[in-house]
Fold:
Amino acid sequence: MGIDNLENLTELSSEALPAYEAALREGCIARDTDLPGVDVLLRVGLLEPSPDERYLQPVDPRLVEARLAAQWRTRAWQLELQATEVEHRLAPALGLFMAQAQPERATPAVEYVHGMEAIREYVSRVSGEAAEEILTAQPGGGRPAEILRDVLPYTLGHLRRGVRMRTLYQHPARFDSPTKAYVQTVTEEGGEVRTMDEFFERLFVIDRTVAILPTGDDRTSAAVIHDEALVRFLTDVFDRNWQRAAPFAPTGTASASAEIMPDIHNMIRRLLIEGLTDSVIARRIGISERTYHNHLARIRESVGARSRLQLGYLLAKEEQLNGEGEVPVEASS
Structure:
């Protein structure tokens, strides 16, 4: 005889052991005994009927152990065989499933593209796959006419298939004729373009799932970001700048000057107070150094400074008197 689990063995210490001890002491016990635990001993195999079936005789625990171990090994082998059979029987269904399943692509959080041509091709490809929105930040002044001419058909194609496009430039782009013509065409098709005074990095965000930005001093490599948290952060930076930027409605030079010249001059003032060099300030604003020096001359004249050093001193003093970081725009601007 045998048992199906180990729970019965835990009862030997409380009820079955005294009955087993009595059987060992007497050599046997009556078949109809009322000693507690006898039924457990029978199920375990520590008691068995005598040849004439009138008594119950004790059995050597080592024999019981060997018998039970053999039974459990047989059971384990049967279960292992059943497990193998399950795998074998499901194999045809697994083959059908794997044939239809799309292979998973392990996409790194950040990957790099090197070379201007490779970067342009990559941006063009992922932009062409956009389904909802393309965000673009283009620092500096106006963009070269040949580049605008090349990208215009792609931009219009995105807009006409329902992709929202938002583009940020710096204020000096408002004075560039090719850029104004480009913006005019794009906005007529539903594109949105704004400008702001502060410097920002070049950035592309496609469907809020992929972000592309330049790396290195020479800007000939780009980081392609797939990480959800990083893309969300960069998108938030763009949205914050977008809220502060001014809509770019292509107008005449005089109108553009009245709209954004105060912002440009305030930006130059802040950067002068920070102690940046003229070349760095010009780059951050997105204008040539020659144009920058024209603005600088107007600012010097407005505050009565005879030199750049005196200008920095007067601007810092004016800021201290105002008690705030932003300096009022001069009336002459």
